[in-house]
Amino acid sequence: MLPASFVFGQSANTLSPREAFEAAQAKRILLIDIRSAEEWADTGLPQGALAFDADAPAFEVRLAGLRLDNPGKRIALIDRTGAQAVAVAQKLAGRGWRDLAAVRGGVLGPGGWLAEKLPLTPP
Questions:
Q1: 3-state DSSP helix/strand/coil % of the chain, to nearest 5
Q2: For the chain, how many structural domains are there in total?
Q3: Interatomic CA distance for residues 49 and 117, integer angstroms
Q4: Phi, psi of 106, rounded to the nearest 5 degrees
Q5: CA torsion sign, 10 to 107 to 109 to 28?
Q6: Cα 121–chain centre separation
Q7: 52 falls within a domain
Q8: Is residue 123 part of a domain?
Q9: pLDDT averages per 10-residue partition of the chain, 123 residues
Q10: In a domain, 122, yes or no
Q11: Domain holding 17: CATH number?
C-alpha cells in the first residue's frame, strides 16, 4: 500500500526512492524518468522506469497516452535531483492530473536513487 501522502491536489507529494522502487517492482505505479536523453546516457534509468523527457514537445500527450493504457495506475516522476519532478507534478496537478508523485532526491541528489544504491538499467 502506498502512503496516504501519495495522492495530491494542487501541491506535489513525494515518495522516497525506495518506496518508488518497491511500488514500481510490484507494478503499483508507473515510474517515469523525466530527464533528458543525455542524462539517461550518463547514468542509465532507474530500474523499472520509462523514459519520457519532460522538455520534449509531446511530453504531456505521451503521458496521457500512458495513463489511458494503464487506467487507475499511479504515476511517480523522477528527475536528476527532485526539483524538476516536483515542478512538473505541480504543473500537471494544476491541469487536473491526479495520483502523481515526485521521487525525493531524484537519481543523483542527496538521498536519491543512487544514494540509496537502487539499481539502474541502460537506457
A1: 35, 20, 45
A2: 1
A3: 16
A4: 55, -150
A5: positive
A6: 15
A7: yes
A8: no
A9: 38 86 97 98 97 96 96 96 96 93 98 98 91
A10: no
A11: 3.40.250.10
